[in-house]
Design a protein that fits this description.
With 199 residues, this protein is α+β, with helices and mostly antiparallel strands. Helices cover 31% and strands 32% of the residues.
């Protein structure tokens, strides 16, 4: 599988997506404490002391051509506020997933996620020429499911007993997607939503 060919950064008016490196570990360790996101049992957000291993695993997947992870920087404050990832890239099928996304509590519902997804989806459909982009989340993660739906993605189905999590619980995974023919409308919708957040 070919390596994902991405620019050095993906930049919008309010967010900069920087290719993830070990130099981001300290800032991500601080960001994740805002809201203590790892305490949500239905997420896979790392604890601060697990951040280095989390980033190292993401970089290992990148080296294998399976994903491309980003640190999310708030362009106005200059602070790293979370991370996200293009993952499960299937070149031969022109499909990929956007996942492993989490943000400091202060960055949630601010427009940062909207612009992050707009940047990633634009790159996926217009540069990588994807025909479908997936989003996956835990059945019980209602906030994530609602956020994915607000993007304009449609639910494809539920993968039951899909994963065994580190606490031993078994995850049912809800799968959503946006397909190529839907992208122009979704792009317009996200642009509109972003303007609403910033007024």
């Amino acid at each position: 599988m070919d390596m994902i060919k991405v620019p050095e950064i993906l930049s919008g008016e309010h967010v900069v997506l920087e290719p993830l490196t070990l130099s981001h570990v300290a800032a991500l360790s601080v960001a994740v404490t805002d809201g203590e996101l790892w305490r949500l049992w239905f997420t896979s957000v790392p604890e601060p002391n697990e951040m280095k291993a989390y980033v190292a695993q993401a970089l290992d997947e990148q080296a294998k051509g399976k994903s491309f992870p980003f640190a999310v920087r708030d362009k106005h404050s200059g602070q790293i506020v979370g991370c996200t990832r293009i993952c499960n890239y299937e070149v031969e099928h022109c499909r990929l997933e956007i996942g492993y996304t989490w943000y400091a509590k202060r960055a949630q519902r601010t427009g940062i996620n909207t612009e992050t997804k707009l940047l990633l989806l634009t790159f996926a459909f217009e540069t990588l020429k994807a025909i479908a982009v997936e989003f996956r989340t835990h059945w019980h993660n209602q906030a994530s499911r609602q956020a994915i739906t607000r993007l304009g993605a449609k639910q494809d189905g539920v993968l039951r007993s899909h994963k065994i999590l580190k606490d031993g619980t078994i995850r049912d995974t809800v799968v959503f997607s946006i397909i190529e023919s839907e992208w122009p409308t979704v792009k317009q919708h996200l642009g509109f939503r972003l303007k609403q957040h910033l007024q």
